[in-house]
């Protein structure tokens, strides 16, 4: 036993030594400032506060909550986040203008730790056409505004905007001026996403080596994604010695967006050994944070978005499915469950093979003979050829046909909704309890058609089901377009998801809700049966 303990302690010490050998890269989150500048992404102050709390839970090092001078609402949001969020550095954002600086200083004065982030254009195209000032005038502004801000806050981050299109000579000069006046962090932004990775990394190296005082300050990277290189450029900056990277959740931001938090963090986490760095991000909160930002901004996440996209950890090809069922590492380099991503590894479609279908059938607790399995496979392929994906409730229906039994606990037989321009919407539903063979007629009301439908269906169900999320997608164009509904429900803290496709969007929602509820009910019935079996066992008690 002692030998085992010693071995365990040695392994723990080795793990600690390995961890300490990695340099820490600070994650500066600007979702609530630069991310919100994306057209249509505007957030209410209360939404910003909720997201800021989630970002703190995620483990970001710095939060840039907004642009205080831009509106009373933004000022209030930054002020409240400074007051309410602890354990995270809060950054006030400002142009190199006294009024902006004053506003940012006031908004962040209650923060436990704070900094001021001020920016000033540096490229000739910005100076000539936007600022309409000479280089010397810009240098003078940089000096005077950094010196002014230094009276109020110690940590000052200075950004020469459009740095990657600024020549070295002037870039060195303006950075030197900012450092001489008290800037402690130099951010070199690729404002228009123009740089190539090798160029961007080399730029930091040149600044560190040639600017007076350049080795006494911290460096930050801020990359935009216009050429799809924001993450690659940020990694190049890290290799050059940058210790902070500015990111946004889901990569939201101006134009094509910013460096994606989840992509950068997981690139570092997955290739930590190659990069020699680590972050303090709690990866298990990544997916929830991504979903929260997507919903708050009403920005859907692309299906093929790395890390958090719907297809990021799903597989339809039979060869991939076979490999994954044998060993997940065959086709996945990350564990989605460690990111908080709901596990739905196998997607059944026309490319799926027998192995994947047999695996899913076994998950339903159904045993099929080889003849029944072959019959099911033929039916499955016929259905899969007609539609893109075969959902669980459809597979259960096919299995039911094969074994001549209804497997779903409840079936939505009919649903109607009375809607209009005014007043409550009303629904009428017929739901069949397949165990008892009885049909139940239910009705519901709500401010919207979906609310009325859900209220009606809930009346027939034996569990307290909470409707937690709805995603709607158009799968084609024109008047006969199909809509796909993805509904998530929760029961006693557990989440279940149903998917349905229908030309009538409301029917798609109703069927998806019913499918999710049936998942919950099936699991509840299985647990009850297991508990009953356990309770009915004869337990022999021996009294010594």
UniProtKB/TrEMBL annotation:
It is an enzyme of class 2 (transferase). Keywords: Acyltransferase, Amino-acid biosynthesis, Branched-chain amino acid biosynthesis, Leucine biosynthesis, Manganese, Metal-binding, Transferase. Its EC number is 2.3.3.13. It comes from the Bacteria. It holds the Pfam family LeuA_dimer. Pathway: Amino-acid biosynthesis; L-leucine biosynthesis; L-leucine from 3-methyl-2-oxobutanoate: step 1/4. Residues 1-21 are annotated as: Disordered. Belongs to the alpha-IPM synthase/homocitrate synthase family. LeuA type 1 subfamily. This is 2-isopropylmalate synthase. It comes from Paenibacillus baimaensis. The lineage of its organism: Bacteria, Bacillati, Bacillota, Bacilli, Bacillales.
């Amino acid at each position: 036993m002692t030998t085992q303990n010693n071995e365990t302690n040695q392994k723990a010490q080795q793990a600690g030594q390995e961890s300490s050998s990695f340099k820490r890269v600070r994650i500066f989150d600007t979702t609530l400032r630069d991310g919100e500048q994306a057209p249509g992404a505007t957030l209410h102050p209360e939404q910003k506060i909720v997201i800021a709390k989630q970002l703190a839970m995620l483990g970001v090092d710095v939060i840039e909550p907004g642009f205080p001078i831009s509106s009373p609402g933004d000022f209030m949001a930054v002020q409240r986040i400074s007051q309410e969020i602890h354990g995270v550095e809060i950054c006030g954002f400002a142009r190199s203008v006294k009024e902006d600086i004053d506003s940012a200083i006031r908004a962040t004065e209650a923060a436990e730790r704070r900094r001021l982030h001020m920016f000033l254009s540096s490229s000739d195209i910005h100076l000539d056409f936007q600022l309409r000032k000479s280089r010397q005038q810009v240098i003078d502004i940089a000096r005077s505004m950094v010196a002014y801000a230094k009276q109020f806050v110690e940590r000052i981050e200075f950004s020469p905007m459009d740095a990657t299109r600024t020549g070295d000579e002037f870039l060195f000069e303006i950075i030197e001026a900012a450092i001489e006046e008290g800037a402690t962090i130099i951010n070199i932004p690729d404002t228009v996403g123009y740089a190539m990775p090798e160029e961007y990394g080399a730029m930091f190296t040149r600044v560190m080596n040639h600017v007076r005082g350049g080795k006494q300050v911290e460096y930050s990277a801020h990359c935009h994604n216009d050429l799809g290189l924001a993450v690659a450029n940020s990694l190049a900056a890290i290799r050059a010695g940058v210790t902070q990277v500015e990111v946004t959740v889901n990569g939201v931001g101006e134009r094509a967006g910013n460096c994606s938090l989840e992509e950068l963090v997981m690139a570092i986490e997955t290739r930590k050994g190659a990069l020699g760095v680590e972050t303090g991000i709690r990866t298990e909160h990544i997916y929830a944070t991504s979903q929260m930002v997507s919903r708050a901004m009403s920005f859907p996440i692309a299906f093929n978005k790395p890390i958090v996209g719907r297809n990021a950890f799903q597989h339809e090809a039979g060869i991939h499915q076979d490999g994954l069922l044998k060993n997940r590492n065959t086709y996945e380099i990350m564990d989605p469950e460690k990111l908080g991503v709901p596990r739905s590894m196998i997607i059944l479609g026309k490319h799926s093979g027998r192995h994947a279908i047999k695996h899913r059938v076994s998950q339903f607790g159904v045993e099929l003979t080889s003849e029944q399995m072959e019959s099911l496979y033929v039916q499955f392929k016929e259905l899969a050829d007609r539609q893109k994906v075969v959902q669980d409730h459809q597979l259960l229906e096919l299995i039911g046909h094969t074994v001549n039994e209804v497997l779903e606990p409840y079936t939505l037989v009919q649903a109607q909704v009375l809607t209009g321009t005014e007043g409550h919407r009303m629904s009428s539903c017929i739901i069949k309890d397949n165990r008892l063979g009885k049909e139940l007629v239910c009705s519901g009301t709500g401010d919207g058609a979906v609310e009325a439908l859900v209220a009606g269906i809930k009346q027939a169900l034996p569990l307290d089901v909470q409707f937690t999320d709805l995603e709607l997608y158009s799968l084609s164009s024109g008047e006969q377009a199909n809509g796909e509904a993805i509904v998530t429900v929760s029961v006693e803290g557990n989440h279940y998801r149903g998917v349905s496709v229908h030309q009538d969007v409301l029917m798609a929602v109703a069927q998806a809700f019913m499918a999710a509820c049936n998942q919950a009910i099936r699991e509840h019935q299985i647990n009850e049966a297991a508990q009953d079996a356990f309770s009915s066992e004869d337990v022999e008690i021996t009294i010594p």
